[in-house]
Amino acid sequence: MQVIRSREFTASRAWGAIDIATMNGISSRLHWTDQPFEWHVNDGEEVFAVLDGTVEMFYREAGEEGSALLHAGDVFFAGEGCAHVAHPRGEARVLVIERAVER
Fold first, then answer.
1. pLDDT digits 0-9 by tens, 49-71
2. What is the Cα–Cα distance from 70 to 92, expressed in whole angstroms?
3. 14 occurs within a structural domain
4. What is the number of structural domains in the chain?
5. What 3-state DSSP class applies to 66?
6. What are the two backbone dihedrals, phi and then psi, of residue 6, each rounded to the nearest 5 degrees?
7. Mean pLDDT across the chain
8. Domain of residue 60, residue span
9. Which of 26, 34, 62, 100 has its CA 20 to 30 A from that of 49?
10. Helix, strand, or coil here: 7?
11. At 24, is the pLDDT very low, low, confident or very high (cuts 50, 70, 90)?
């Protein structure tokens, strides 16, 4: 049993994370950041849930670029092949669920 108080979590660097669980090849990680990530395409699908703060998610899909402003409680789903980049506005804490990668 584990309780994680996401609003209390910080990391020593942007996009630092703690592993919550890996189940059947899917990882759940809590990230803290105050800096943008980088444009990327995941190896599979990704669920990105803002737990604290505000994040502007930029995405490219079918040749079109767009963005969505995500607040605490909002969820962004990136389907396979969806290029995206997260830009927090100040500090943010995000739960990311995706295919597990070896670290």
1. 999 999 999 999 888 999 999 99
2. 10
3. yes
4. 1
5. strand
6. -60, -35
7. 95
8. 6-99
9. 62
10. helix
11. very high
